[in-house]
Amino acid sequence: MRRATSGRLLQRSRTRVSLWVCCSLLALCYSTAASAISVTALRYDAAKDQLVMTIAYRGTNPDHKFSVQWDECKRLDDERSQILGLLLDSQPDDLARQNFTTSLKIDLRDFPCRPAKVTIRTSAGFFMSVDVPAPPGDGTPDSPSAEARNAP
User: Fold this and answer.
1) I need a surface site. Which of 51, 57, 59, 135 has the fewest CB within 10 A?
2) How many CB atoms lie within 10 A of CB 59?
3) Dihedral pair phi/psi, residue 126, rounded to 5°
4) Which DSSP category does 135 fall into?
5) No. of H helices and E strands in the chain?
6) Comparing C-alpha atoms, which of 5, 124, 138, 137 is closest to residue 55?
7) Is 81:88 a contact under the CB 8 Å cutoff?
8) Where are the domains of the chain?
9) ∠123-114-84 over CA atoms, to 5°?
């Protein structure tokens, strides 16, 4: 009879601990900060000479402002350069309660690192890249020529 009683007590104790762990994990997930930021689209807009990205994030409000902190420009083996930008959130400690999306446009008229492979990354480790051509009007074509040519 003792074994049956101690077995039930042990089972109840395990159930309580499991329930406590589950509730704690749920509370932690519900109140995490909005560190889950991702770039869902990244492109170069040649008409406006801008880098355009769509950002998805979680928070309590849609008023987050984003900016990019640029690393130094590095020269690649070909004619291009490479630059890495860290996407920064103005409210990194906002609680992750709702999904939001916003767009960010970065004017590249005075961007010195061109032509370049531009990579945007987030603190969560997400990254996306896009090729940015040389500035318009510097004599370097933005894309391969579409002229018809005869074979030699």
Assistant:
1) 135
2) 22
3) -75, 145
4) P
5) 1, 8
6) 124
7) no
8) 38-132
9) 10
pTM summary value: 0.67
pLDDT tens per residue, range 40-49: 999 999 999 9
Contact 18/12 with Cβ under 8 angstroms? no
CA of residue 152 relative to chain centroid, distance? 47
Tens digit of pLDDT for each residue in 14-61?
666 555 544 444 444 444 444 579 999 999 999 999 999 999 999 999
Other beta carbons less than 10 A from residue 117's beta carbon: 17
Residue closest to 81 by CA, chosen among 31, 45, 115, 107 = 115
Contact indicator for 37, 55 with CB cutoff of 8 Å: yes
Residues 6+ apart with CB under 8 A from 12: none
